[in-house]
Amino acid sequence: xxxxxxxxxxxxxxxxxxxxxxxxxxxxxxxxxxxxxxxxxxxxxxxxxxxxxxxxxxxxxxxxxxxxxxxxxxxxxxxxxxxxxxxxxxxxxxxxxxxxxxxxxxxxxxxxxxxxxxxxxxxxxxxxxxxxxxxxxxxxxxxxxxxxxxxxxxxxxxxxxxxxxxxxxxxxxxxxxxxxxxxxxxxxxxxxxxxxxxxxxxxxxxxxxxxxxxxxxxxxxxxxxxxxxxxxxxxxxxxxxxxxxxxxxxxxxxxxxxxxxxxxxxxxxxxxxxxxxxxxxxxxxxxxxxxxxxxxxxxxxxxxxxxxxxxxxxxxxxxxxxxxxxxxxxxxxxxxxxxxxxxxxxxxxxxxxxxxxxxxxxxxxxxxxxxxxx
Length: 374
Ligand SMILES: Cc1cc2nc3c(=O)[nH]c(=O)nc-3n(C[C@H](O)[C@H](O)[C@H](O)COP(=O)(O)OP(=O)(O)OC[C@H]3O[C@@H](n4cnc5c(N)ncnc54)[C@H](O)[C@@H]3O)c2cc1C
Fold this sequence. Notes:
Shape: globular
Strand content: 25-35%
Bound molecules: flavin-adenine dinucleotide
């Protein structure tokens, strides 16, 4: 059974800024927490993973080679780059670049539309979580703790947590709880507290993605990445060509994303089978089917990879000052890193503004959030 920790006295009679829990250490949660820290809030970030970054992820793999030696490679197996367009986000990216946490990548991209060429994108360095680590510097983190439930209490909100080993326990009190998790997870946590938000977020359609991470002998391939959308595969990249990545001599780490349609149709397939199918598809694209020498291959399944359609919520985030409850994330925009950052940043501004204002009022009512097309 969950145990409940003692509740401290509510903060209504003290001048200290409210204690805020941000759930999710992806780019939305990181932007939100960074904004609140700057505004002087007492903010703690919780994430079920052991690291930060969420879908901006890098995985390390090792495999045995001859004479007991071990081969190693890293794969940016989620979001591999992003493109800032909004000035406020651009300014944050520029600061991160000056500190060496991101780099510009002139990516040689094979694409059938509009045409093969070079495009400029931004890549965190030396790995994908580096950008969120940078945003979160100075913010207290509780990693490896999934929030399984929210409970109203006199001082605000109890968080029910699990670290995967011990039963969920509650921690109290957070006067404000801000959800920066994928929409389906947010919907689950909001049920019973803000049903209209839960219903709207529960209706947001996100597509899954199977991703192959493989290592071959060096191959003569003129591109850094390719948008293929052919057969099983949608996108492939040589991971060693991204800025700041490890380059192992004579070995090439590849990341290959299956199409959304294929991923959806094969969502429940055995990972070993999926590995074989995607490996064969990659070989066909790289060498015309002649099998390259494989050193490693594995897959990852993203259940909630990207939005099926741009959401039309009318706001960049939701915030109820009365409840001390807010939601942000990439579902509030076009499902991109930039949308997630803007949503988190906007929520921090809304929370800070309502703390300054008296009496407190709701700044953004629950609004329609559907998966209607662009
Ligand atoms: C394969 C793939 C390719 C992509 N390509 C691009 C691209 O090229 N360009 C681009 O801009 N975007 C791309 N994206 C999308 C981009 O990664 C996301 O839009 C963005 O990272 C979302 O950030 P977020 O903070 O909203 O959510 P997330 O990154 O999902 O962060 C949510 C965090 O919440 C945590 N969490 C969830 N539930 C709980 C819980 N109950 N308790 C505690 N913690 C919890 C998770 O562990 C996670 O760390 C891609 C995504 C994928 C998967």
